[in-house]
Amino acid sequence: MAQKDTVGVVGTGIMGAPMAVNLAKAGYDVVAYNRTPAKAEALVGDGVRVARSIAEVGAAAPIVITMVPDTPDVLDVVEGPDGLAASMAAGSVLIDMSTIAPGATRELAARLAERGIAMLDAPVSGGSWGAQQATLTIMAGGEQEVFDRCLPVFEALGKNVTLMGPSGMGQTTKLVNQILVAGTCSAVAEALVFAAAHGADLLKTIEAVGGGAAASWQLANLGPRMVNGDFAPGFMVKLQQKDLRLVLESAQEKHVPLAVTSIARAYYTALEADGLGEEGTQALIKAVERPAGLEARQRA
Hints:
Number of domains: 2
Shape: globular
Low-confidence stretches: none
CATH architecture of the largest domain: 3-Layer(aba) Sandwich
Distance between the termini: 42 Å
Helix content: 40-55%
Number of helices: 14
Order of helices and strands: EHEHEHEHHEHEEHEHEHHHHHH
CATH superfamily of the largest domain: NAD(P)-binding Rossmann-like Domain
């Protein structure tokens, strides 16, 4: 395969690492940086080059992807000491694929534009499984021309790629996604604990209701993991907590009541209090099990 342009990746954690690998598989020259060097160095065998600093990534790549946990982290890697803003050339593009506050995204995009650097906010849905399989859903905000330029990069990472509107609209759409995901995951957990309390066959219950109006990705994919006791993270509890904080802050700004989302966040708060922040979001069932005084487990 002919080698394509250089793409930088800052943040090679549970999501960023498989994304960097998939870009390399698609023929891109990928240069990556992670604050824990070993996480980036583990990708060398997959064709990813390792940078010694964030600035080195910015200087090497006309397109740079950031995939870090929260708003302060994005601002630090972009505008902090030796950050991307100072090292990226005019005419280059920053694609932030983290999930951060829409308002902060718009403000950062405006500051980068003053330097001649375009920005797309392009958060993703699909968890680590989607990142590994290059089937992520990508919701982008920014200018059409910049989106078109970066579309081949997105297509190496995901299957459902949509430009949602101007800067910040990718992040807004991701928060919509998280409202739906958190509420549905909570309902799945409650339903399975209810079923267990009444002696139902849990896997058969999932199969039965999953063929009707109650069908959802959360039920089909996380339901079996819940009852099998598989709490390995596709997406961590602590990151869902962060996303729901962003949701509720944005909702408060617009005076939108989000009662179901608030309850879902309370479940995740209980999990974090129990030290389960690094388990997968399907661990939410544990927060429902405790007051019920039972475990909803049934291995296939």
